[in-house]
Amino acid sequence: MKNLQNIDAKICLTAAGCLIHEGQVMLVKHKKVGAWLCPGGHIDPNELPHQAAEREFWEETGIEVSAFNPDLPTATDGSEYLPNPILTNLHWVSQDNYQIRTEGKSSTSNSKLWKKGCEQHLSFIYLVKPAGKNLDFKENVEETDGIGWFSLAELDDLELFGNVELEIKTAFSLLK
């Protein structure tokens, strides 16, 4: 397998939140990729990755969450410990953009799916928990084709994007 880091691809930074509640994980069916994954998206300029995961989760589901690590200490010197991602994944999102750019066909990538010119995504996956008691979701129909709660057993019946199943199983194992 190729080491993706050695490729001169345009990498866009993204973050996602994995919310597990009562033995189920919340997933959205992403319109662009046509598959199920944890809510997430691009990190905005000057935004910390865990903040992007929280914002994107809310934008796609209407549920406010906060990223966390089970044993995150509290700093006592005026500084702050930030939640760490449970996984960080580098994957292709548009090899077409990469081909167009590297073959000199265009100075900018213009994929219909990845208008920001993304070729790869470096994704930070966080555990998130509800910021309040309300877990009623509201689907963002501009970005998603579905939303729901799923058990580990139900994942086999879903078309999942990339390594999402591994990411979800990792999250479940950390919460045991």
Short description:
With 176 residues, this protein is an alpha+beta fold. It has three helices and eight strands; from the N terminus they run E-E-E-E-H-E-E-H-E-E-H. The protein has a single domain (13-174), classed as Nucleoside Triphosphate Pyrophosphohydrolase, CATH 3.90.79.
Descriptive terms for the model:
alpha+beta; 3 helices; single chain; 18% helix; 176 residues; eight-stranded mixed β-sheet; Nucleoside Triphosphate Pyrophosphohydrolase
Describe the structure.
It is a single chain. This protein has 176 residues and is of the alpha+beta class. It has one domain: Nucleoside Triphosphate Pyrophosphohydrolase. Strands 1, 2, 3, 4, 5, 6, 7 and 8 form an eight-stranded mixed beta sheet that branches. The radius of gyration is 17 Å and the shape is globular. The mean pLDDT is 90.
Which band does the percent of strand residues land in?
Answer: 25-35%
Write the H/E string, N to C: EEEEHEEHEEH
* Shape estimate: globular
- What structural class is derived from the secondary structure elements? alpha+beta
- Architecture, CATH level 2? Alpha-Beta Complex
Q: Kindly report the name of the CATH homologous superfamily.
A: Nucleoside Triphosphate Pyrophosphohydrolase
First and last CA, distance: 32 Å
The low-confidence runs, each spanning 5 or more residues with pLDDT under 50, are: none
Please state the average pLDDT score.
90
Tally of separate helices: 3
Give the CATH class: Alpha Beta
- Which percent bin holds the helix content? 10-25%
What number of domains?
1
C-alpha-based Rg, rounded: 17 Å
Question: Can you count the beta strands?
Answer: 8
Largest pleated sheet: 8 strands, mixed
CATH fold-level assignment: Nucleoside Triphosphate Pyrophosphohydrolase
